[in-house]
Amino acid sequence: MAPPTTHKAPFSLAGMLGPLALAGGTVALTGDLRYAAIAALTPLMFLGNFIEERIRGRSGRRRGMRDYTARLAEFEQAVAERQAAAVHDRRAAHPDPAEVAHRASIPWSSCGTWAAAVPRPR
């Protein structure tokens, strides 16, 4: 399973204009311009958060791809090992008919590996 795609933070105009509108209302009600100074920082904070989310999402995606690639390599290695073991087991359980015929036609003394498994005639 591939790593999930990262959620890209949308540029929210309401997220930036909402605090500005509230600060403007507070300045209009109280007449204190300090609120306007604080509200002027809202776009900078919003832009900083937006950039941070994008960078964090990009590095998270790279980390996810690196982990996915490592897990995929481990999986492929495990599948290759199991496939090799299955082939070995099947070949041991069912030898090649040509090899069986060859072993049956040669003298007992030169049988090699089968000589110990098969009792010799006396």
Which helices and strands appear, and what pairs or packs with what?
Blueprint: H1 13-30, H2 34-40, H3 42-93, H4 97-105
List key phrases describing it.
single chain, about 120 residues, mainly alpha, 4 helices, about 70% helix
Quick one: biggest sheet? none
Strand content: under 5%
What is the rounded Rg? 37 Å
Global geometry: rod-shaped
User: Pairing-aware structural class of the strands and helices?
Assistant: mainly alpha
Give the topology string: H per helix, E per strand.
HHHH
Estimate percent helicity: over 70%
Compute the separation of the termini in Å. Answer: 63 Å
Ranges where pLDDT stays below 50 over 5 or more residues in a row are none
Q: How many beta-strand runs?
A: 0
Architecture overview:
The chain has 4 helices and no strands. By secondary structure, it is mostly helical. It is rod-shaped, with a radius of gyration of 37 Å. It has helices at residues 13-30, 34-40, 42-93, 97-105. The two termini are 63 Å apart. Helix 1 (13-30) packs antiparallel against helix 2 (34-40). Helix content is 70%, strand content 0%. The longest helix is centred in the middle third of the chain and has 52 residues, at 42-93.
